[in-house]
Write a structure and sequence with these properties.
Blueprint: H1 3-13, H2 18-22, H3 26-60, H4 67-118
Helix pairs in contact: 1-4, 3-4
């Protein structure tokens, strides 16, 4: 399998930076992986804050133990969280993944061309 295809599949289906790691571009791999983990971690932190607030409201009796009321509150809080910046984190994560994918394919194509030039020709 060509390096470009393998690197692209790794970046697309494993994690941002895995294609770079396969191509021995470890610094780039680390940068893409750290950016992806940071954005996911920040999104998870915001989700956990919403969950804790709703949990506290249930424990204190502000929200009744009614699945319809709790679902409506989760929807309301989630919409507010997305509006307040979680969508930027999500778009940043997707952009990081896409850039990592495209760059790993580009680097793989470059290595494939170099390999084709340096490969011994069958005569």
């Amino acid at each position: 399998m060509k390096k470009a295809l393998t690197a692209g599949l790794l970046s697309a289906f494993v994690a941002p930076g895995s294609g770079h790691f396969y191509l021995q571009h470890k610094r780039s791999a680390l940068v893409f992986f750290v950016l992806a983990i940071l954005s996911l971690g920040l999104m998870l932190q915001q989700v956990m804050q919403v969950a804790q607030l709703i949990s506290l409201d249930i424990q204190t009796g502000v929200l009744p133990l009614d699945i319809g009321v709790i679902t409506a509150e989760v929807t309301k809080q989630t919409t507010a969280t997305i509006r307040d910046g979680a969508d930027k984190l999500m778009y940043g994560f997707i952009l990081c993944w896409l850039i990592a994918l495209l760059d790993s394919v580009r680097l793989g194509l470059k290595q494939d061309k170099q390999d084709a030039v340096t490969a011994p020709k069958n005569a």
